Amino acid sequence: xxxxxxxxxxxxxxxxxxxxxxxxxxxxxxxxxxxxxxxxxxxxxxxxxxxxxxxxxxxxxxxxxxxxxxxxxxxxxxxxxxxxxxxxxxxxxxxxxxxxxxxxxxxxxxxxxxxxxxxxxxxxxxxxxxxxxxxxxxxxxxxxxxxxxxxxxxxxxxxxxxxxxxxxxxxxxxxxxxxxxxxxxxxxxxxxxxxxxxxxxxxxxxxxxxxxxxxxxxxxxxxxxxxxxxxxxxxxxxxxxxxxxxxxxxxxx
Length: 253
Prior knowledge:
Strand order of the largest sheet: 2-3-4-5-6-7-8-9-10-11
Largest sheet: 10 strands, antiparallel, barrel
Distance between the termini: 33 Å
Radius of gyration: 20 Å
Number of helices: 1
Number of strands: 11
Shape: elongated
């Protein structure tokens, strides 16, 4: 079952930082830039657009949980122009609300997490087996609001925080010709002085419409995203963890 876990300073401590990517990430970054002159290119201009419903289970330190589907939107543009990378965007919206209290007071807590991935990538292989690699950024926006109500009086504490992290991107996939079935796995990872993250997903897709103008398919997958914030950052979060299954539709024009 998927879990979305958020830690907040003063409310809960859920995780320690994950290990840094280190010098190997820098070496891979340089290698990816050098691949621009030797990678495969799309034969035609193509646009991919998709929407996913990701099942999340938000759980606090007291064991209370809130299950829901969260929206994920995907957009990719591929072209045959040499040296120019293809473009991929992914927007994810995770949120959760919690309430607690008794006859004397109530505490309402609203947590919002939005991420935006912006990537430039090259197609290393593009046939029955496909391999993509590239660079980009992950933008993380967090919103945390706590309202304490005692009788008719109330007070609200809010914290909004934005973080942009550099990212390495690798994807691999394959398809069964003439069946409409394909599979793909994607990995993103990166860090800066205030945070580090990993974002991994794997999916199986079936195209129930395939013609020269449009491919339309349904996909089933699983995603695991973790963002760790440094103790010196201004975020009220210590860790964001989202893991679980998703179902979606994707169109290829």
